[in-house]
């Protein structure tokens, strides 16, 4: 397992340009945060603005109090009548500041929960609309994985933006106070902080570049973890002795990542430590200037106290403000994949003026000179394919693996559009119909059907989601597929959790799961029923039972059947034999046997194994 290198490590001016360009990601993020919880955002921002003003207000009140006390002790001046009110105000400001910090914590917690829910739902909804082709692209999988991580890991960025607002208000008020007394003090502070800012920002960007390059390796590690500790792989893991091999592969890849991370962290430690000391020197230089001027009598003790607090606060806040802003700019880089993910639009989608699916279907489907190649390849899976699926007709597709049988199913259901040619439904191009409405009229069970870790009722109910709570219809669909009896034998019947992921779940055999999946197709009660290897996991008796039911239930419907078992396809009205993406033979079982061609050879070869 090797990592495909994708170097992304600009330096110098290019790196800074990359950071600045990344700031364009902030407005879309703010928009998503606002949509997640507008009231929480508003009151959280208000609390941060008020909290940002309190430090300078507290320092100014303390300045007046100390000067009043100094005048009383050294100059024998009476305390002003407002003195004790100032003491009360100092206490009130401290109490209000504490309360605002609690309000901010509360808003952070609520907003984090709302944002997580909002962004997770958006990612799920958008992912469900994308073309199937994207899910077969490894590069898209890397982008999708980064988008999923970015969707939930941007909570820190959101909190940083709130902190930035509060730090900005505090910094501006403190800096303005220092500027009032001496512009040079403020200038010294800023000049000494800038190098530390640049250093932190530089290494944050290097960290982003490293994370980008490590995305594929991390996905490999996740896969190795799954292989090393999953029910599906446990048998072969033991029988083939793969435990040591997989753990060694995991250790090798994780050691590589660890070495890369430690190397970057070490370089950051050495560089930023020196720059931080420079910022500390700037703080003490301004502090020394204030003390010197106080000794000369230019500042009062209250002013000394005020400036000492303002310089300490400004020094910390200026550095923190720049670091926070730099951090947001660097974190914005991590939003690229999330926002690019949301920009991806499906090519297979309904047109604005799409037609509703015909009810009932009168003529059926027609493949007219259809060719198809999967995205990213030039090899035609289907080439100039022509055939019809008439109303009320049952067609079987047979052929060796890779001849295009499942591809035909994907084209009829518009999971893909043809590369060339047309697929017509009642004489109208399939692309003219509303995609969602068309899907309601087609029931499909693929060989690799889903095994939902849900209740038995929900597993069937997903076949027609709007009827998921109609237990009578669900039970009827289960009877048609042969799943009703096995469900009744489960401890909780239709309320029984299936699978082992959740507590109390019961796992089923492959054949039992397939009956559950068939029940979904029957619940859909669609005009077109497509079964792709529907009996692959059933024994001979169960297979016979399924197709006796299938023959009855498809009467009057269009049905498309894919199977390697010739005992199954014999029931079809017409059999299409596919080879190299073309139909080489067509007819009923009897007609094809008399033809003595490819179908007859395949049938005799399979039949000989039962003699």
Describe the 3D structure:
The chain has 611 residues and is α/β, with parallel strands linked by helices. Among the domains are: 24-343, ABC transporter transmembrane region fold (Up-down Bundle), CATH 1.20.1560.10; 447-525, Rossmann fold (3-Layer(aba) Sandwich). It is built from 23 helices and ten strands. The strands form two sheets. Strands 6-7-8-3-9-10 form a six-stranded mixed β-sheet. A four-stranded antiparallel β-sheet has the order 2-1-4-5, with helices on one face. Strand 4 (420-425) and strand 5 (428-429) form a beta hairpin. Helix 8 (183-213) packs antiparallel against helix 11 and helix 8 (183-213) packs parallel to helix 12 (301-333). The chain is elongated and about 125 Å long. 30% of the residues are buried. The model is unreliable at 1-12 (pLDDT under 50).
Question: TL;DR?
Answer:
With 611 residues, this protein is of the alpha/beta class. 64% of the residues lie in helices and 9% in strands. Strand 7 (528-532), helix 20 (540-553) and strand 8 (558-562) form a beta-alpha-beta unit.
Topology, please?
Blueprint: H1 12-22, H2 26-36, H3 38-74, H4 83-129, H5 132-135, H6 138-153, H7 155-181, H8 183-213, H9 215-228, H10 231-239, H11 243-295, H12 301-333, H13 336-343, E1 364-372, E2 382-390, E3 394-398, H14 405-412, E4 420-425, E5 428-429, H15 435-440, E6 442-445, H16 456-461, H17 471-481, H18 484-488, H19 510-524, E7 528-532, H20 540-553, E8 558-562, H21 566-569, E9 574-579, E10 582-587, H22 589-595, H23 598-608
């Amino acid at each position: 397992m090797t990592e495909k290198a994708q170097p992304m490590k600009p330096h110098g001016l290019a790196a800074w340009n990359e950071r600045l360009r990344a700031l364009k990601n902030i407005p879309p993020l703010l928009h998503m945060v606002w949509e997640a919880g507008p009231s929480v955002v508003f009151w959280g921002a208000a609390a941060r603005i008020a909290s940002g003003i309190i430090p300078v207000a507290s320092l100014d009140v303390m300045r007046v109090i100390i000067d009043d006390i100094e005048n009383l002790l050294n100059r024998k001046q009476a305390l002003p009548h407002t003195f004790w009110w100032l003491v009360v105000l100092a206490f009130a400001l401290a109490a209000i500041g504490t309360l605002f910090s609690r309000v901010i914590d509360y808003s952070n917690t609520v907003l984090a929960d709302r944002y997580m829910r909002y962004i997770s739902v958006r990612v799920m909804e958008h992912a469900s609309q994308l073309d199937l082709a994207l899910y077969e692209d490894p590069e898209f999988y890397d982008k999708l994985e980064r988008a999923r991580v970015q969707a939930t890991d941007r909570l820190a960025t959101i909190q940083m933006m709130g902190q930035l607002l509060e730090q900005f208000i505090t910094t501006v008020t403190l800096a303005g106070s220092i500027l009032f007394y001496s512009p040079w003090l403020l200038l010294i502070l800023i000049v000494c902080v800038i190098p530390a800012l640049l250093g932190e920002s530089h290494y944050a960007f290097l960290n982003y570049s490293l994370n980008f390059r490590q995305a594929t390796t991390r996905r490999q590690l996740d896969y190795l973890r799954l292989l090393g500790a999953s029910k599906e792989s446990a048998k072969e893991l033991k029988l083939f002795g793969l435990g040591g091999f997989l753990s060694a592969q995991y250790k090798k890849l994780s050691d590589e990542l660890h070495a890369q991370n430690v190397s970057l962290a070490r370089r950051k430690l050495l560089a930023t430590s020196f720059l931080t000391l420079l910022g500390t020197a700037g703080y003490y230089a301004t502090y020394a200037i204030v003390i010197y001027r106080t000794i000369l009598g230019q500042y009062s003790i209250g002013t000394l106290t005020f400036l000492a607090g303002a310089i300490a606060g400004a020094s910390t806040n200026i550095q923190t403000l720049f670091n926070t802003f730099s951090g947001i700019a660097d974190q914005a880089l991590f939003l690229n994949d999330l926002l690019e993910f949301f920009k991806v639009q499906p090519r297979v989608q309904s047109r604005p003026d799409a037609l509703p699916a015909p009810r009932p279907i009168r003529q059926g489907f027609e493949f007219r000179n259809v060719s198809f190649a999967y995205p990213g390849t030039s090899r035609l899976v289907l080439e100039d394919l022509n055939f019809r699926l008439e109303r009320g007709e049952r067609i079987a597709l047979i052929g060796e693996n890779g001849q295009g049988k499942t591809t035909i199913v994907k084209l009829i259901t518009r999971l893909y559009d043809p590369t060339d040619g047309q697929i017509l439904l009642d004489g109208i191009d399939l692309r003219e119909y509303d995609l969602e409405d068309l899907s309601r009229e087609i029931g499909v069970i693929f060989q690799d059907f889903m095994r939902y870790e849900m209740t038995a009722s929900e597993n069937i109910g997903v076949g027609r989601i709007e009827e998921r709570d109609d237990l009578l219809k669900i039970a009827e669909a289960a009877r048609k597929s042969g799943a009703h009896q096995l469900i009744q034998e489960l401890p909780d019947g239709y309320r029984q959790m299936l699978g082992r992921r959740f507590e109390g779940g019961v796992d089923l055999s492959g054949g039992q799961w397939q009956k559950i999946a068939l029940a979904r197709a029957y619940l859909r009660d669609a005009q077109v029923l497509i079964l792709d290897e529907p009996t692959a996991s059933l024994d001979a008796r169960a297979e016979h039972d399924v197709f006796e039911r299938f023959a009855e239930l498809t009467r009057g419907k269009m049905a498309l059947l894919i199977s390697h078992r010739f005992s199954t396809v014999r029931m079809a009205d017409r059999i299409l034999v596919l080879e190299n993406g073309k139909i080489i033979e067509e007819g009923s079982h009897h007609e094809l046997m008399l033809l003595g061609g490819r179908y007859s050879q395949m049938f005799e070869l399979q039949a000989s194994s039962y003699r």
